[in-house]
C-alpha cells in the first residue's frame, strides 16, 4: 500500500510539472530563429496567432503540433488557408495535414529530444506542410 501511495504522489507531481511547462510555453510563446508565427483565420474573420517551430524536410516547410494544447492545429485543419510570418516576412500558405510515410520522414528529420518529450507528457505529434499560395 505504501508503494502505491508513493507512485500516486509521483504521478501527481509529474502531471503538475507537465501542466506547468505547457502553460508557460503557451503563455510566453518563446521565439527564435527556428520558429515562425502562424496566423489562422476563423470563419468570422478573427485572427489567431501562434508561435510554432519551423521545420524542414525534403525541401518543404512544415510546422508541428508538439504539445497537448493544440487549438491552433484544429483551427488550421478547419481553415487551411493560413499565414506564416518568418524573419518579418508574412506569406500566404495552405496547411496540408501530413500522414503515412511523409509523417514518418518529417518526424525522423526533426526528432525531439527525449527530455522535451518527458516535459510535455509525450503528446502525439502532428505535422502540417505549408504550401505557398497566392496572397
How would you describe what is shown here?
- This protein has 135 residues and is α+β, with helices and mostly antiparallel strands.
- The protein has a single domain (2-132), classed as Electron Transport, Fmn-binding Protein, Chain A (Pnp Oxidase, Chain A, Roll), CATH 2.30.110.10.
- It contains 4 helices and 7 strands; from the N terminus they run H-E-E-E-E-H-E-E-H-H-E.
- It has helices at 2-28, 71-78, 100-109, 114-119; strands spanning 35-41, 47-53, 55-57, 60-65, 81-86, 89-97, 126-132.
- A 7-stranded antiparallel β-sheet has the order 2-1-5-6-7-4-3, with helices on both faces.
- The relative contact order is 0.18.
- The model has no long low-confidence stretch (mean pLDDT 87).
The arrangement of helices and strands along the chain is HEEEEHEEHHE
Overall 3D form: elongated
CATH superfamily, called what?
A: Electron Transport, Fmn-binding Protein, Chain A
Cα-to-Cα separation, first versus last residue: 63 Å
Largest sheet: 7 strands, antiparallel
- The strand count comes to 7
Amino acid at each position: 500500500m505504501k508503494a502505491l501511495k508513493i507512485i500516486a504522489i509521483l504521478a501527481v507531481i509529474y502531471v503538475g510539472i507537465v501542466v506547468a511547462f505547457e502553460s508557460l510555453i503557451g503563455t510566453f510563446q518563446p521565439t527564435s530563429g527556428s520558429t515562425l508565427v502562424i496566423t489562422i483565420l476563423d470563419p468570422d474573420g478573427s485572427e489567431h496567432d501562434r508561435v510554432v517551430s519551423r521545420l524542414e524536410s525534403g525541401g518543404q516547410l512544415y510546422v508541428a503540433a508538439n504539445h497537448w494544447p493544440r487549438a491552433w492545429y484544429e483551427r488550421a485543419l478547419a481553415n487551411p488557408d493560413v499565414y506564416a510570418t518568418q524573419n518579418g516576412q508574412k506569406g500566404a500558405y495552405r496547411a496540408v495535414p501530413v500522414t503515412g510515410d511523409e509523417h514518418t520522414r518529417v518526424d525522423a528529420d526533426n526528432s525531439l529530444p527525449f527530455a522535451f518529450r518527458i516535459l510535455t507528457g509525450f503528446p502525439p505529434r502532428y505535422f502540417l506542410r505549408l504550401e505557398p499560395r497566392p496572397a
